[in-house]
């Protein structure tokens, strides 16, 4: 797993035997203030203290309401009573309780002082759980305003009572208001505050005849999709102006061009950003031959090396230079790009139109479910890519020199600084053969004395040759940044996954549903587990439990165990199994076969509904066009994750390979997607049949070129530098990414956040699969009936269809068990014999008849 987290705070105390044979403590645990503040025990103590204060206050306040009259004379003497042993106080919390309550209630806010207890409670709970269970800031706002307003209102309404209902502060505000505005004016102001509060809070509809219909503010998830188009446009306008891209590149949206589009979410930013590249202000240092340099705006002549990408104008060497003779390294100026240079792969899937009216809402079962917020995650260091100008210049010179040594002349060189590597793009002089540069990979690596140099000759679609050189200082790409980005939160993907950042610092967010399966490989310790966590966390951040289920296979037993806490939210398992995370090979085989049955069942449902894929089917179901009585139901996506595939293939071979291949071939349309990881990317593990069905593949660093070829059908993965540096092959295009980093404690927090919320009563159940080998063949005794015999009989009689697939679907059974049940029903005289592809005849027509028949069978 990512980082095997060790408890930081429990430093073992080393002990040594001294000469007398007794044990003595050699080193005391040092307590440092900084450490103390980070120590979870400190937080727990602080949390408990705050909670106790809140309980202290509430008890003393309530007690005060009943005892203030008797205690009044003593309390009004002030704190001196604390030291007077003769003073007797009736308040439940004694003198201190009485004095505190008196101060808050009598002197300050009257009854409204009770609100102050909630503040201590909220802070206490947050500290104790080290999580933002309640918003302190919101509470503080409500408490402060509430105390002022409530105390003023009470003082205004009950001015001359013996008990100070509004306290000193209330009396003061009410007195000032009545003094300035008179009784009526003061009453009006206070009433206005109360009314304004209710309008703000509940936004009641004041329906005048002919008033335009207001768009409904949506609730969870699909609300945005259901809001009327005009509302979305308004939101869109706002977002265009207010929300900058997270990766430092300025977001430019051509509002004019998009004006007629109603749905902001359908606006794909990338092409627009690309179209406006010049205005986006990416940092770019261009190496232009002096002849090719056109007069540029003054500010662009200086080489920007570090700073805010948004502040810089983009000098674009748009027109290719006239053919000119090659120049020396000093004549070439470097162009640095730190903004997107190419659009992200277009993987957006058109989403099905949300049904209006009384659409079925699958999320309603867990309607209070809240998706985790990016605040739960850590920002790992600065996200800002550091560009060392000296390093860039040096590398540039080395590249030019090395190429010059081999008589390769270049016209132009530019650099794009990414989180881990810098891409130097060169345009060779006319007549230079590309293969010549490709062959110099090792020489350039040697001259730059850097590992992990990769040459891309040519870069597809750009007409340049790329040389990737690792940065001296690498930047960690935090998962938090990706998940907080607009691109992720506004994505319309079915299964959005935030994988990392491209070399141009663009967030790489793709749709697993269109991939449609993913193969991940890489030597041990190069970032595979972090990659799997990044994918799982992305999905947890974007989906509701009703929309997605995971089947987790973890032969290593420890990698995915953290997810077992969300079993009733997001996991699927076989019936009668205890663990949702599958570690045993035999169970893996059963689960894969169960998934195949689920796939077949789903295809039956789709066929019945006349839909081509899960999206159409779910859209039809939510529009209530499919009858649940006929077995139709909302189908969640199922993502199968296998953490160590090699292990499974070694132990189970074809028994695992076949169902995986079958799923990979057929399952995409019905919403089952596979993610398979292995640390041994050899041909006997990643077989031809597996490879053919996994078009999307990720390679972390591997140990040999052969391994790289096995995964990607190309070299390069052996030259990566590890720690999440990866190549992804998607739609036939290979891109280098820095994988997003999410640490184990962060995953823990996200999982805790979900597990803490209400889940389903049980995990999502896959159909039962019974291994044929486990079934005894031959005749069976009626006394030996299946436990589901009677249920099956009732189902068949109620529907009057003698179909095995009906049993499979409605009772979530495997084919074998359903078939066996059908044979038993035939033997019992409930259905007729098999009629080939037609359903069997049902011999019993009514439930009453069936009951008599069953009673007779005994
Ligand atoms: N994206 C990343 N950014 C920064 N550091 C990373 C990244 N991915 C991995 N690392 C570093 O590499 C270490 C190993 O990563 P990880 O546990 O994912 O490797 P692995 O390939 O799964 O290894 P194994 O197969 O042995 O489990 C991590 O503890 C972390 O320090």
Walkthrough of the structure:
This protein is an alpha/beta fold. The chain has 5 domains: 38-202, no CATH class; 219-266, no CATH class; 281-333 and 386-470, Threonyl-tRNA Synthetase, Chain A, domain 2; 479-761, Rossmann fold (3-Layer(aba) Sandwich); 772-857, Arc Repressor Mutant, subunit A, CATH 1.10.10. Helices cover 41% and strands 11% of the residues. The strands form 4 sheets. A 10-stranded mixed sheet has the order 10-9-19-18-17-11-16-15-12-14. The longest helix is centred in the first third of the chain and has 36 residues, at 40-75. Residues 1-27, 210-327 and 338-356 have low confidence and may be disordered. Adenosine-5'-triphosphate is lined by residues 1-3, 476, 522, 524-530, 679, 723-724, 739, 741. It holds the Pfam family FtsK_4TM. Keywords: ATP-binding, Cell cycle, Cell division, Cell membrane, Chromosome partition, DNA-binding, Membrane, Nucleotide-binding, Transmembrane, Transmembrane helix. The chain crosses the membrane at residues 45-66, 104-128, 140-158, 173-200.
Query: In which range does the helix fraction lie?
Result: 40-55%
Oligomer kind: single chain
- Gyration radius, rounded: 35 Å
Q: Roughly what fraction of the amino acids lie in strands?
A: 5-15%
Spatial gap, N to C terminus: 56 Å
User: Unreliable segments (pLDDT under 50, ≥5 consecutive)?
Assistant: 1-27, 210-327, 338-356
Structural class: alpha/beta
Number of helices: 30
CATH architecture of the largest domain: 3-Layer(aba) Sandwich
Mean pLDDT: 76
What is the assigned CATH homologous superfamily of the largest domain? P-loop containing nucleotide triphosphate hydrolases
Bound molecules: adenosine-5'-triphosphate
**Spatial arrangement of strands, main beta sheet:** 10-9-19-18-17-11-16-15-12-14
CATH topology of the largest domain: Rossmann fold
The CATH class of the largest domain, by name, is Alpha Beta
The total domain count is 5
| Main beta-sheet annotation | 10 strands, mixed
């Amino acid at each position: 797993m990512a980082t095997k987290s060790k408890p930081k705070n429990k430093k073992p105390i080393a002990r040594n035997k001294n000469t007398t044979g007794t044990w003595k403590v050699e080193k005391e645990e040092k307590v440092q203030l900084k450490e103390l503040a980070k120590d979870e025990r400190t937080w727990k103590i602080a949390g408990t203290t705050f909670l106790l204060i809140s309980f202290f206050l509430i008890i003393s306040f309530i007690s005060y309401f009943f005892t203030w009259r008797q205690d009044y004379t003593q309390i009004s003497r002030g704190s001196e009573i604390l030291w007077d042993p003769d003073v007797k106080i009736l308040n439940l919390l004694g003198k201190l309780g009485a004095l505190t309550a008196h101060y808050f209630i009598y002197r300050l806010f009257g009854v409204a002082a009770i609100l102050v207890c909630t503040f201590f409670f909220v802070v206490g709970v947050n500290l104790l759980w080290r999580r933002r269970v309640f918003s302190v800031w919101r509470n503080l706002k409500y408490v402060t305003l509430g105390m002022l307003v409530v105390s003023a209102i009470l003082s205004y309404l009950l001015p001359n009572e013996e008990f100070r209902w509004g306290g000193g502060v209330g009396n003061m505000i009410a007195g000032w208001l009545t003094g300035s505005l008179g009784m009526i004016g003061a009453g009006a102001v206070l009433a206005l505050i109360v009314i304004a509060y209710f309008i703000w809070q509940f936004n009641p509809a004041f329906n005048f005849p002919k008033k335009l219909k207001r768009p409904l503010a949506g609730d969870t998830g699909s609300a945005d999709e259901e809001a009327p188009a005009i509302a979305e446009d308004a939101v869109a306008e706002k977002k265009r102006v207010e929300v900058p891209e997270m990766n430092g590149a300025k977001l430019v949206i051509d509002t004019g061009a998009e004006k007629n589009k109603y749905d902001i979410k359908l606006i794909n930013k990338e092409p627009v950003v690309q179209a406006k590249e010049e205005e986006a202000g990416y940092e770019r240092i261009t190496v232009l031959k002096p002849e090719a340099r056109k007069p540029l705006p003054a500010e662009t002549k200086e080489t920007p090396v570090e700073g805010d990408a948004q502040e810089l104008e983009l000098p674009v060497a748009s027109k290719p230079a006239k053919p000119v003779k090659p120049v020396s390294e000093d004549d070439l100026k470097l162009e640095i790009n730190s903004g997107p240079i190419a659009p992200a792969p277009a993987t957006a899937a058109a989403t099905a139109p949300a049904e209006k009216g009384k659409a079925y809402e699958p999320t309603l079962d867990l309607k209070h479910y809240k998706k985790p917020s990016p605040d739960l995650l850590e920002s790992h260091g600065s996200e800002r890519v550091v560009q060392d100008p000296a390093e860039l210049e040096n590398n540039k010179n080395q590249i030019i020199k090395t190429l010059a040594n081999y008589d390769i002349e270049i016209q132009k060189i530019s650099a794009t600084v990414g989180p881990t590597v810098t891409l130097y793009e060169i345009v060779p002089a006319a007549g230079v053969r590309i293969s010549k540069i490709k062959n110099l990979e090792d020489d350039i690596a040697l001259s730059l004395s850097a590992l992990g140099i990769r040459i891309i000759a040519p870069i597809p679609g750009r007409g340049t040759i790329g040389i990737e050189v690792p940065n001296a200082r690498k930047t960690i790409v935090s998962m938090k940044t990706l998940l907080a980005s607009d691109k992720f939160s506004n994505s319309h993907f079915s299964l959005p996954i935030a994988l990392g950042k491209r070399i141009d610092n663009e967030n790489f967010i793709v749709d697993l549903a269109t991939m449609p399966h993913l193969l991940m490989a890489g030597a041990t310790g190069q970032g595979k587990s972090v990659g799997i966590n990044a994918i799982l966390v992305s999905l947890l951040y974007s989906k509701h439990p009703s929309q997605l289920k995971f089947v987790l296979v973890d032969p290593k037993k420890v990698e995915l165990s953290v997810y077992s806490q969300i079993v009733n939210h997001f996991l699927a398992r076989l019936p009668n199994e205890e663990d949702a995370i599958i570690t045993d090979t035999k169970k893996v085989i059963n689960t894969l076969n169960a998934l195949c049955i689920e796939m077949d069942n789903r295809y039956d449902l789709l066929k019945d509904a006349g839909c081509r894929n899960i999206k159409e089917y779910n859209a039809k179901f939510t529009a209530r066009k499919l009858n649940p009585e006929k077995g139709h139901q909302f189908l969640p996506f199922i993502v199968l994750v296998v953490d160590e595939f090699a292990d499974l293939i070694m132990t189970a071979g074809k028994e695992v390979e076949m169902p995986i291949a079958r799923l990979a071939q057929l399952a995409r349309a019905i919403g089952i997607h596979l993610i398979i990881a292995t640390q041994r990317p050899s041909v006997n593990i990643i077989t031809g049949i597996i490879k053919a069905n996994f078009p999307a593949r990720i390679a972390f660093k591997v140990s040999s070129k052969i391994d790289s070829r096995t995964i990607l059908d190309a070299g390069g993965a052996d030259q990566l530098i590890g720690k999440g540096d990866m190549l992804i092959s998607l739609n036939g295009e290979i891109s280098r990414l820095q994988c997003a980093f999410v640490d184990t404690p962060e995953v823990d927090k996200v999982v805790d956040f979900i597990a803490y919320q209400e889940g389903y009563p049980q995990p999502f159940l896959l159909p039962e699969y019974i291994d044929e080998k486990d079934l005894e063949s031959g005749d069976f005794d009626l006394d030996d009936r299946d436990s589901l015999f009677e249920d099956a009989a009732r189902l068949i009689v109620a529907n009057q269809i003698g179909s095995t697939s009906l049993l499979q679907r409605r009772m979530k059974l495997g084919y074998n068990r359903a078939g066996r049940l059908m044979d038993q029903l035939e033997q019992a005289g409930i259905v007729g014999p098999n009629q080939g592809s037609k359903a069997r005849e049902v011999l019993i027509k009514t439930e009453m008849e069936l009951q008599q028949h069953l009673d007779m069978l005994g």
